[in-house]
Amino acid sequence: MEVMMLLVYDQPGVMQRVMGEFNRKRINVETIVVGKCEIPDRARIVLSITDREKAMNVLEHIRALQEVIECDLVDQSRHEAYALLSSKEGLCRLTGSVQEVEAIVSKSQPEKYIQAMNAI
Amino acid sequence: MKGARAAVELLEKQNVEVMFGIPGGVLLPFYDELVQSDIRHILPRHEQCAGHMADGYARVSKKPGVCVATSGPGATNLVTGVATAFMDSSPMVAITGQVATHVLGNDAFQEADSFSLMMPVSKHNFRVVDPKLFPETMKKAFLIATTGRYGPVHVDIPVDIFQAEITDEQMAKEVRVPKPKRNLEGLLDAIKLLETAERPTIMVGGGVIWSRAGTEIMRLAEMVMAPVVTTLMAKGSVPENHPLVLGVCGMHGRQVANYALNNCDVLLAIGTRFSDRVTGKLSEFGAKTKVVHVDIDSSEIGKNVKGRVGLVGDAWTVVNALIAGLQKRKKSPTWKQRIIELNKECSCDYNLKLEPLKPQKVIYELSKNLPDDAIVTTEVGQNQMWAAHFYKCYGKRMFITSGGLGTMGFGFPAALGAKIARPKSVVVDIAGDGSLQMVSQEFATAVENDIPVVVALLNNGWLGMVKQWQKLFYGSRYKASQFTVPTPDFVKLAEAYGAEAIRVERPSEVAEAIQRATKSEMPFLIDFVVDPEEDVLPMTPPGKTSVDCIMGRCPWKGGVC
Ligand SMILES: Cc1ncc(C[n+]2csc(CCOP(=O)(O)OP(=O)(O)O)c2C)c(N)n1
Ligand SMILES: [Mg+2]
Q: Is residue A102 classed as helix, strand or coil in its secondary structure?
């Protein structure tokens, strides 16, 4: 799994433009997290895709977008995962290393869950 | 001041001399302010053509072309014009009106989400929703269109922005956009490759036209004794009467150009994206070749042809850096001599006197009779490929074509834009009958605004290129490629709009017709009735290599390219 982190202007249309590049290159984005960050009027997008070669290919295209300030791959050691699980026992929140979270999710076989990658 | 006034002043401050547009409800406040302005306004008869005219103007003047369309159908009509400019990296500012911000998103009358429609076909686009940001947005649009790799920028402006109050302070706000990053880390590697090359070849693309690096490229070519081949987009960037310039390469390219591409050991590719129409089957392209790829757009390096020395920067700067760095140049004149010989032999005689009239003969006479500063535009199809293959571009001649998107109907409006940018030059659209029928209403624009361009129509009664593919690859099963009689009488059609027109059916009449047309002060159509059976050959079938090239009458004797 490759995790890509972008710093972008926080305004309407930016997600559409960024996702448009992945769409055009037929890359499935596995998980995506967007949020405000330490700089006013900027946001960070953290997304993950499975294929390293595809990630490398799309990188320069994303960087060329006017509303993207930075875009880089994040090294594996900084990857984090989290998940929200719902089962008979109720809601359960997980954070931790990618392997840990994946292991718990697959072991506990929740009714519903969502899992995402993050990094900083 | 009101937003509409601000819009006009912002365009004037950008030194916009001419704009191409069709008004509509949401644009009326803006058009009302244009009454006071000195900016020339051309009213095309279809928004697509407003786009192509602005594009043709930009390709000649190297300044962003400005086109305007109203909301909804105006904007959707303009999409093809913007997309065509995008694929050929032509600078443009495309303005669309939009319904008022308070009804945006409610399916108001003539609302279309033009912001989303234009996004994937423009370099960048804006939807203005805050009048405070309107002036800086307009300034940014012009900057982005002409910074780094050129391209069209679209600005969607709701009608209430034109009516809102804009302060002097907002008007005075300065804007900046990031400069494209240069990366010349590979320069020494590139120089070493060029110095040790036995059979170097330079391939130039459209970037070289925008960067005006032709002269420097010829200097470099002579220093390293390398032949120069061009892509379709680069035709005209280097003089085609120079012995080292081999002309256009690719699917319908000259054999000697493809020979050099496929037999070189080091390829210096400048300002080209290695389109599939140039490379054929990608995996085979340059398999034995070391490639140095120069482009202003870092995302092009490694996109189609991988694992090569990449230099990021504009063609002019990088070529000058290479010239400065080259020192111990190895002289290996064998390759150069061989190529020059082959190039001489690769000049087939296309002064065909056969009847019915051959399209190649028309191009031959155009090449011979047009002045040294003529501008040729083309439509799309066989007409375009004959023009690319047989027309010789040198001196101040220019060749303008829709290479990336391949838009039928581009050439005629682009010719009008080109003529406005350079009124003293003869401008000729080499047209096909299918393409011309998509935009023939623009004769009205040409006559109304006194834009005397020549349309040299290669009238074969077919969607010729479609027919050629059906003949070669689909067992001659023709479907929807012939215009069954009666196709319009193009002479009468042009005359109905007030243009001059003549029909030519004999090889002996071609030259005189061209001379007459180029002297005319009216828009002029020559309806060349040409042989419908003629194919554009040689041709390397799509996805194939030169081994599979269909040669036709081509006299090439240089062996497999
Ligand atoms: C807008 C558009 N529609 C369809 C095509 C597909 N197409 C490519 S060439 C061609 C035929 C062009 O016919 P014509 O203009 O008569 O030129 P010819 O090939 O006969 O010289 C067609 C339909 C296109 N390139 N552009
Ligand atoms: Mg035709």
A: helix
